[in-house]
Specification:
By secondary structure, this protein is of the alpha/beta class. About 45% of the residues lie in helices and about 20% in strands. The protein has a single domain (about 5-205), classed as Alpha-Beta Complex (2-enoyl-CoA Hydratase, Chain A, domain 1), CATH 3.90.226. The protein contains eleven helices and nine strands.
Length: about 230
């Protein structure tokens, strides 16, 4: 779904979101309350400049509008694979973005992520996965690593990983698998305004992804291991 179509369904024709190249930002009215919207479009690769622009928008919201809710609209192909960004410290810029989102949560801002198109790799990890909860549209595409890349890293064959992906969501891309693992809290279908309203009202402020993954059968041991470590 195009970002402007999504904005109209969520907030009406005069949404108030501005697109500066691949960077989305603005203030919208939702149920009579202002809401900060920050995001990306065009399958944006997240480089230093885009990561810092998003971080700046989060910091500005905290400084000017304490407690205001933030909606992250996610459409990214992952981190920018360019030497210039590597030399400028893309890892630190993306970590800074993640820290800003985490700080906003700690200061009482409700932060909701929505994957409306594509979410890959580090561009997803440092945005939607750090929100209070991340949701997705059913047609969204989510993955952290393709099976060929996973094979190179793990030294396991693509055939073996493909076989594992049939029964284990950890090895498989796809929005339903991320729901099963708890990384995506739920899918927004039908009335998107109702979905956002419910998310703002009921999303827990504590991280329950491991519990969700265990309950849904997608990550059977993560919660158990966490509890064992905490009780050690």
């Amino acid at each position: 779904m195009e970002w402007n179509t999504l904005a109209q369904k969520l907030f009406g024709a005069s949404a108030g979101i501005v697109a500066e190249d691949d960077f989305l930002h603005g203030t919208v009215q939702f149920d009579g309350n202002p809401l900060t919207v920050i995001g990306t479009t065009h399958h944006a690769p997240i480089g230093v400049a885009l990561a810092l622009a998003q971080a700046r928008a989060v910091l500005d919201t905290m400084a000017r509008y304490p407690g205001r809710a933030i909606l992250l609209l996610i459409d990214t192909q992952g981190q920018q694979l360019r030497r210039r960004d590597e030399l400028l410290g893309i890892n630190r810029a993306m970590a800074h973005l993640g820290c800003c989102i985490d700080l906003a949560r700690r200061r009482g801002h409700r932060v909701i992520g929505l994957v409306y198109d594509q979410a890959l790799s580090g561009g997803f990890i440092t945005s939607g996965l750090i929100a209070d909860a991340c949701y997705a549209l059913p047609e969204a595409e989510i993955r952290v690593m393709r099976i060929p890349a996973m094979a190179r890293v793990t030294k396991l064959s693509e055939e073996h990983l493909t076989q594992l992906s049939q029964a284990n969501p950890v090895f498989a891309p796809g929005v339903q698998n991320y729901v099963a693992m708890g990384g995506v809290r739920g899918l927004w279908q039908g009335d998107l305004q109702s979905s956002l309203r419910d998310a703002l009202a009921t999303t827990p402020t504590q991280d329950v992804r491991a519990q969700d993954g265990a309950a849904r059968g997608g990550r059977k041991l993560a919660e158990f291991v966490m509890q064992q470590v905490l009780s050690a």
